[in-house]
Design goal:
mainly alpha, Arc Repressor Mutant, subunit A, 30 helices
Length: about 600
Amino acid sequence: MKKYIQHLSSFLTLPTTFLSRKAPISLVVSIVLIVFSSNLMFSQLNSGTFEDMKQDFYAASGNSEKEFEIATSYLAKAKKENDAAQIVAGYELFVSHYSHTKKAISYTDSIILLTKNTKLEHYPAEGYLLKGIQLYYNSTYNDALTNFATANDLALANKNLRQQISIKHYIGLLKNVSEEREEALKIFQDNINFIHENDFQEKDSEQYLKSLFALADSYNKNRVLDSAEVVHQRGIKASLQHPNKYLYPWFLTSYGITSYYKGNYTKGIDSLLKATKLLKNNEKSLCSNYLYIYKCLEKQDKTEEAIDYLYKVDSIYQKKPKVIFQAREAYELLNKELKAAKKHQKQLEIIEKLLVVDEIITEEYQNLGKKIVQKYETPLIISEKETLLNEKEALINQLQDENFLSEKKVIALVIVSAILLVLIFYFFRRNVVQKKRFNALMENYEQKKVQKEKEKAEKKQIPSSEKVSVTTQKEDIGLPQEIVDAILIKLEKFEDTHQFTKKNYTLTKLAKELDTNSTYLSKIINMTKGMNFAKYMNEIRIDYAIEQLKENKVFRSYTIKAIAIEVGFNNAQSFSTAFHKKTGINPSYFLKQLENQKSESNI
């Protein structure tokens, strides 16, 4: 290619030579030469077979410019010959060239569009598979799963075993993302067994290495370390025998992780550092390496050196948001280290980053399962009182270190101390008030519980023919009694079956579910419950939250965000506001007091 560009460049310099003498003639000659040279260059680029061009493309691995050049020529040749199969192959070269980027996804869309209504073998299943893979590596997990499901249906219909193995492989990877680790391990074990039984390791060596690596990694995640070590050694040997040493850096990384879990920290660091040199363009793997290098160094009491690797993860995340899960772990570890070192200002900066990351994970990845949302939700680490006392201690220490205290400094110290004492008294008094409110809330809860059980017992004893209408003692609503009674019975069932825990309930939606209209329902709620619909929904959700927190140990382990979603609120803020409005205390304080009660009762 460069030879032809140089050849063309020599012609492009000709016009400057002739312009001073015979401009019109020289211009015509130059244009003819340029056209001739361009056609010559294009014909030379397209003179090789498609197979030759493919081999050249893969031989140029690592040379991005040459890869692009060959892929462009390949696609141009395919389109010129109007060969659908080769056009698809050209798009696949571009998918490979732009792999792990959003641009690769656009080429997979072109493959799907081109092959949907054709009879090309393996398509459009291969297009959906490739798209799922690229979406996975761009952290768009839900869309990836959708495309894998479509590809799997087509692969099963066509009895394409290679595609089924690959799809199963990536579904196993998605299982790991959602922390269904045992299920993922079973998938990878089945895949490897199938590959060996059908001699697939020779037919598709790269898929074999992928499956072998996934199995080794899965053994790590499930802490089956001896098996992990055996599979890693097999994988490293097989990858070194591959022409391109396929997955060799990743086997080194995973072997380093196995060494860490087995307590061989020096060996682990050695493997991880070797892999790091080969993974400079793969941010996720690089961040994973840095996290485990930190862990190995920390185990060797090399804390200062270890922390540098956590900041490297932070630095990558600022440029590449797709490493969000690795960044979250780095922030958690940094928070622990900075807290231990009493570097409060830096710790608060990391906490802010941690909270932002948690919010993103909660919003974008919650469909992968509630467990992952709960795990990545972070509680407030430094309370108001602790912050206040830290500031006070820092101020006093600063003043004590000075050699001379001027009169103004003494006055300032007295004023600051007085302010701090007032604030401490305020927080102390607020705590007393909140404790009283908590005790009253618990007493009221127990009374309601007893009353509810009593009412249930009485209802069972009274024949239905003798039951008095619920609204006979209420003010007249202006509606037929039978309609009111029917709606109240349905409303009671709505409460008893906890349907209100669904999010985004509106008056109109509930009225439709109860086979009435919103006007009737609004009137009945106002007159029988003594409040409007919005307040009524908040009240029963808060009552249910209190009941669950009091009686359900698992519920108490949830974060405020998870509790809010569980009882029907859209977010933690609206739940906390409604909880405080009803009880006079925050849900975090209520949870803390409940835990204190449980701890005291277990002593």
